[in-house]
Amino acid sequence: MANIIKKEEIIYPYLEKPLSVYTFDNGHKAVLAYKKSPLINISSWVKTGSLNENSKNNGVSHFVEHLLFKGTTKYPAGVFDRTMEENGGIINAATWKDYTFYYINIPKNHYKIALEMHADMIVDALFPKEEIGPEFDPDGEAPKEKRERYVVIEEIRMGEDNNWRKVYKNLNSIMYEKHPYKREVIGTKEIIANISQEEISKYYKTFYTPSNITTIAVGEFDEDEMIKLIQENFKFKDNSNIEKCKTDDQTPEYKIKNPKTTVDFADINTGYLMMGALCDSAKNLKETIALDLLSTILGDGKSSRLYSNLIENVDNPYYYQIESCHYQFKDGDNFFIEANFDAKKRDTVVKELKQHLDNLSNITDEELKKAKKRAKVNFAQESELVGDIADAIGYWTTVCNDISLAHKYLSTLEEIDCKYLEQIAKKYLSSNLVSTSLLLPKGEE
Amino acid sequence: MEEFKRNNINILLEKTPSTPRYALNLFFKLNKKEKYCGINSLLARLLLQGTKKYSAAQLALEFENECIDISTKAKQDYIKLSLVFLNEDFKKATELTKELILNSTFDDFEKEVYKIKGEIISDLDNPKLKLSDAFIKNLFKNHPYSSCHTKILDDIDKITKQDIIDAHKDMLNSQKAIVLVGDYNNKNEILDYFEKEFDFMKDGHEKNEIKDIFKNDIEKDEYIWLTKNDASQAQIIQGWIVESFNSSMCAKIAVLNNILGSSGLSSRLFVNLRDKQGLAYTVRSQYETLLHSAIFSMYIGTAPKNIQKSLQGFQIELEKLANEKISEKELKGARENISGRLKYFTQNNSQIASIQGYNYIMGLGLNYNQLFLDDINNVTSIDVNDIAKKLLSMPKLVTIIAPDEYKTDF
Lengths: 445, 410
Known about the structure:
The complex is a heterodimer of chains A (445) and B (410).
Chain A: E1 4-10, E2 19-24, E3 29-34, E4 39-46, H1 60-67, H2 79-85, E5 90-95, E6 100-107, H3 111-123, H4 129-132, H5 147-160, H6 163-175, H7 189-194, H8 197-207, E7 213-219, H9 223-233, E8 261-266, E9 271-278, H10 285-299, H11 305-312, E10 319-327, E11 334-341, H12 346-358, H13 365-382, H14 386-398, H15 404-415, H16 418-428, E12 435-441
Parallel strand pairs in A: 3-7, 8-12
Antiparallel strand pairs in A: 1-2, 2-3, 4-6, 4-7, 5-6, 9-11, 9-12, 10-11
Chain B: E1 2-6, E2 9-15, E3 21-29, H1 39-46, H2 56-65, E4 69-74, E5 78-86, H3 90-103, H4 109-123, H5 127-140, H6 149-155, H7 161-172, E6 176-182, H8 187-197, E7 222-227, E8 234-242, H9 250-262, H10 268-275, E9 280-289, E10 294-302, H11 307-323, H12 328-344, H13 349-361, H14 368-377, H15 381-393, E11 397-402
Parallel strand pairs in B: 2-6, 7-11
Antiparallel strand pairs in B: 1-2, 3-5, 3-6, 4-5, 8-10, 8-11, 9-10
Helix pairs in contact in B: 1-7, 9-12, 9-14, 9-15, 10-11, 11-15, 12-14
């Protein structure tokens, strides 16, 4: 059983009590948060995702996520899902570029069994061959036993029919030169059809190590009891001597070196566009907050610049949807504009959106005030549900590797003025620094 | 939650200590068939598009400067205004809400029609939305519940501004409720405030012009094929019109639905079609209750060559539910799962206001969630068998979107 070597209390906005952050001697961390609720959320956040993949195993992080539900020594496939759900639990998992996480929302009277089975799944995944299914040629005849490889391939297929996902995939691939972020998290059909159980297991043993995992519990519980259960149940195996997976060069790219445009076509009626920029790491708190504020000013809500100038104050608008967003990553954030529009206006659209980016050098005090209030309210919003609180804690501990930044967010926000925002806009969001992805109706070539 | 009647205004309050944001919902019950599809949707949107005092852009600024989140929605049985705002902004939020309900000008009528048309065309680029649009249209045929994107597109140019003004009058004359959930200090102050400032929320006369339906109009199995030649997946919805919450069948259908395909990762469709056969990433069943009817459906997204296999899978799972005893363990699991899901979906102020307001305006009462769980606890294996048998005996509607090369005779 791991021993606690450190316990810290961290003040977290809008929560009644500080977070308790425990570090164990094996490197595993646990964060406990109090929230009055009939449910308890238990999750484990693993610091791995497509960031740690290469061109041969792209998609393995997400495949491992699926396969963690497929049985342990103690509980065969299906037992975890059934037990949690017949106790009123809602379970799932997600994989992204920097992290993979597994969660349970369960009525509080059932949290002990939830914690025990959750820990078991994280530390003792077996990857049974019969659950993975046989390797096969995705262009050839499908095997009789399809199993989980096929489930993931269906998920890939589902994404291929999603217009926004197509635009994002194309943009993502041209924004980066080399960084692993350029690949899709879900991988390719070919890799999923052929990756071996040995490679999957090696990936798991490389990255599902105690120092790479933070376990989070949010809700109403006895803290001493919860931390004891975590200590007792997370019995990590010693995989220190195994051959480790090799990762690609992860040198961060904080600006697009060669801005490009990509155009694709589909059986659709309207045009889809994403324009994207690369920025500094999410750990750079002041810049990350500035990008949050710029996103609010540019494209969040009906009073934002994009919506009001291109839809609300236009007689016959040719945009059907327009917004901006800011994604935070360990090795550099992304800033996007997303537009859905009358495809015949494609050239005008690209020009207008670039003009809006260049006009970000002119922020008013009113815009800044509105954006700052939105940033504060977002914290209030994230404190309403046990699952949202856990997700926010997971983000700070995994992507930023520093939970105390959550507390510093609001004070850092107050330091930001219009001039600083203009500097950040100029540094990252000038029109000559963005790449563009378009998806147009066939026939609009 | 507590119910109050002040000066004929229905006010529902729930105090949730230590929450920084209020949720305020205003419900207006719809009892008339729309003259044209889309009138209520258009009305709901136009409520945010300008008043005597504020243009649409100014209104957006007034709300967003204070981070008052507002949305308006026209559903089959009601129009709802939902607001979430910081406790300190109560007065501002309620004053703006009053302004837009009483003083909307609908001057942006033509522009909003233009915008809706564009948005619908864009939405129909999404194959899943196109599929559910066709499903609803063909399931409810000429009933008001058949209102969907494509029917709105057909009708929208016939709608006039006067139609919107008339629909707004109907909305103000309808049965209504105010729902507030949050950390208020003094209940009576809140009640006095609504009584004084929200007298337009006085309850109207109930005139139900929509006839009850719960029978399938479908006489034999119907298959609707939608072509999407560049689709990677085929998507299928198979469903029926069934009894709703006003029927004793409701809890039985809910338990069948949970076991078949809505409990999450352990439902029978999930385990047998996804986990064991690898047919899909998404496969599920759904039971959607409305005031006069309900829909029970199964959905799968699968490789186009698996269409027949998926339909067979639906049939096999229903037959097993019809002919085999459901173990007490599985029934107990379904009960716990439904109860847990209800807790999950009533966690924050916004969710509580929405669900309790809906229960109230549908005439179910504020204790409905508990009564529903009590009914769920009484559902037996035989009940589930009977529902499954009934579904199997009723003609079904199957809608499919896929490349034409996979089209076969059904």
